[in-house]
Amino acid sequence: xxxxxxxxxxxxxxxxxxxxxxxxxxxxxxxxxxxxxxxxxxxxxxxxxxxxxxxxxxxxxxxxxxxxxxxxxxxxxxxxxxxxxxxxxxxxxxxxxxxxxxxxxxxxxxxxxxxxxxxxxxxxxxxxxxxxxxxxxxxxxxxxxxxxxxxxxxxxxxxxxxxxxxxxxxxxxxxxxxxxxxxxxxxxxxxxxxxxxxxxxxxxxxxxxxxxxxxxxxxxxxxxxxxxxxxxxxxxxxxxxxxxxxxxxxxxxxxxxxxxxxxxxxxxxxxxxxxxxxxxx
Length: 281
Fold this sequence. Notes:
Shape: globular
Order of helices and strands: HHEEEEEHEEEHEEHHH
Strand order of the largest sheet: 3-4-1-2-5-8-9-10
Number of domains: 1
Number of strands: 10
Structural class: alpha/beta
Radius of gyration: 20 Å
Distance between the termini: 75 Å
Largest sheet: 8 strands, mixed
Helix content: 25-40%
């Protein structure tokens, strides 16, 4: 077998393996759902977590059932799965199953559903997340100096929002609340993935690093990101069929590379929050 044919076989095998993994995940999700109905939420989350564990770099941690907090004391609704970079950022509180994680560390939040979705509940869940505010009074040593406050390329963040659901109706209004929607389709044995793929990487860069704010000046090479869309990361078979899970792998990890590192953690801001407890505002 010549080199070109070996390469073609390797690529075909990787695509086929991704499809087999998709089929296995879908089978597990529906088996748990059929056997236990709506009482098997934690097992369903474990199955979705396996998917993310397969594609997320090991610098990230996947935590189940967390609450996300900011330095003003605002707290999110419970988050089924949170993907965070804990390299530099302490947990606010972690004991057993109870976890409070600072917004500065969180890259992705995942809501897992297997039954009908409540639009108002989903909207409130998303609003609670977008209202969390990062603080910028951090102190850290970086390459050639002491950074006081945020670095020029990263001032605030809002996590990537992902909905994981079974093949029930997910209406367009609910889809609009999320950056990615993963739907397990039992009939086709695949995971259909819809995402905000029309926007360019510059828009994503601004959202993930300058949530509700703007850079202080021009960021070198940012204009280049205007020319690139998430659609450019789609992987398809020769017949044009999307290899969904492999596509999602490349798209999500590209966005994580735009974050690269968590925001510098503002220890003083959180110390101030807990010192203010019980005092008159």
